[in-house]
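Bit of a strange request maybe. I'm writing a small parser for structure token strings and I need a real example to test against, not something I typed by hand. Could someone generate the tokens for this chain?
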Amino acid sequence: MRFEGEGRMERVVFDRMAELDQIHWWFLARRRILKAVIGRVARPPEGARILEVGCGTGHNLPMLSRFGRVDACELDDCARALATTRFGRRIEAAKLPDLSIFEQDTYDLVALLDVLEHVRDDVASLRAIHRRLKPGGALLLTVPANRWMWSAHDVAHHHHRRYSKRQLTRVIDSAGLEVQVLSYFNALLFPLIAAARIAGKVVGRESADDRLPVAPVNAVLNGIFGLEAGLVGRIPMPFGVSLVAVVRRPKP
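Reply from user aminoacidic:
Good idea to test on real output. This should exercise your parser:
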């Protein structure tokens, strides 16, 4: 997922994501968690209008479609073509913070999933989303957490930042949105992932840590991470690799 004028993910990293998004433990468990958060916290109305900004290869679109009619955008040409083929509908090209191709005051739910960290002007981007939401509509937002975890993974993915809870709250407030839920997630595997990132720094690893584990390990990690589907938004998570938020456009 990238935006024109922003740092582009290395091609090999993006291609690997396209290969793995249906089988890798992180993608599989994350979709289950996000589906649970939408149903339990965001709670869009029946037949909701939904927009995913920066949909990448489109792997979240079938899950989002369970909650209503989905529009989507992605600027990377190869990703957009794959997403269009998978989804069977046109995926638009849009550049944050310019979402002018989408109508204002239209969407019950907007999904911005591991995209904001790629964009230089995060406040302007959330303000653009604010204008696309209906009053009372919800934004589902995920970002990488913990600035101290910055590693080769972030460099390879061309992130501009990792967020603290305080920093993300400040950006959300500046965009005129209201936090309903803000929580860490990917907490159960946090010690393992943090140790791997620290070890990578020590040995000078320069590649992203997104390879597919052997099948038994992949299944175990999928199961452990997926347990958080019943926890996020219900139980305070004191730490985690990522942050997830449900924020709303205030009603008049």
